[in-house]
Amino acid sequence: MFTSFSTALSALGALSTAVDVVGNNLANLNTPGFKASQVAFHDLVTQSLGAGLGETQVGFGVGRPVTLRQFSQGAIQSSSGPLDAAIQGDGFLVVRDRAGALLYTRGGALQVDKSGNLLTATGERVQGWASTGGVVDTNGTIGDIVVPVGSLKSPTPTTAFSFDLNLNAAGTAGPPPTQFSTSIEVFDSLGASHVVTVTFTKNATVGQWDYSISVPNADVSSPLTPVTGTITFDSQGRMVDPPAAGPFPAITVSGLSNGAADMTMTWQLYGTTPRITQYSQPSAVSANSQDGSPAAQLIRVGLDDGGRILALYSDGQQIMVGQLSMAAIRNPESLVAVGNNNYQLSARTALPAIGIPGTGGRGSILGGAVEFSTVDIAREFTNLIVLQRGYQANTRVVTTVDELSQETINLKR
Question: By the 8 A CB rule, do 147 and 321 touch?
Fold first, then answer.
């Protein structure tokens, strides 16, 4: 009978631990990426009474409960944070704490410090691949991700330009000859803009137009001689000369008055098909393009789906400046929680496989979203009531055994 004291006390201790676990789950109801824990109870060894054949067995109570963290998928909700990341599927973000230790987290509320380091909400440095020389190499080792902060993107000088246009087949050699002009803005090595003008003039040969490429004289220290040539079309209105194999017309702009480097630009006359046609329609440009850009201010940095970190500049260009890494762990329930939504490896944890999101069994990353906690408030309150009733029942066991022991002691009187 007296073992009932220790049996009931073991239950009180185990139930108290279980209530602590439920309380921790409820406390983290609104913690992004938090994974709820469950308690697993197990009994202690039993003793056999009587002849020892197992007809009567009495247990010694309940052992210390085991907490099991459930890494189930949490609900994903859109957020207003441009760097927020939600993991859909298995895997963890890889972070490094102030002591330099690698940790793993599902909390995706990310931010940038004054030096451009990508951090978690609690200050751990997010690991991945940063841009080096404008290129993100995901084949290298992971490290701290540093994004541009208030930087100025250097200009890109124009090396090629193109027009998609039609020249009216009804044009004549005159007098005066039919002419059509179009222009495009290009950029030099300093990011200054210049206007390249192409003028088409119908000549006396059927299916032929002369062209002249020029830049304003005010842009150069001495006037440049326009680049001239002839374009030939067949009876179907398709351009046949210059041929698709080239060479294509090129213009060199030297002696720029602003001191920029000399420019050499090629006129791209072909895409998948000839860019210039000659049909019986008004001469008109349908599209144009060039590969240069001016210097541009950084507007903002955001996280795209797939964990790509993009920098948006004032010229409308988006440049990939980083890539988040993800770790796949075969037995995540063996991880040890160390606070701040982070986990570290234990002796029972399989080695993490680190790679790009969406590969090798790793889940995907959704930008501009967060993963909610997996705590179910209804289930936790139900568990709390059950644990409370269990605690009350075991206190009654202690009270009852105490009364029985007093009755036993009183037998001597």
Answer: yes
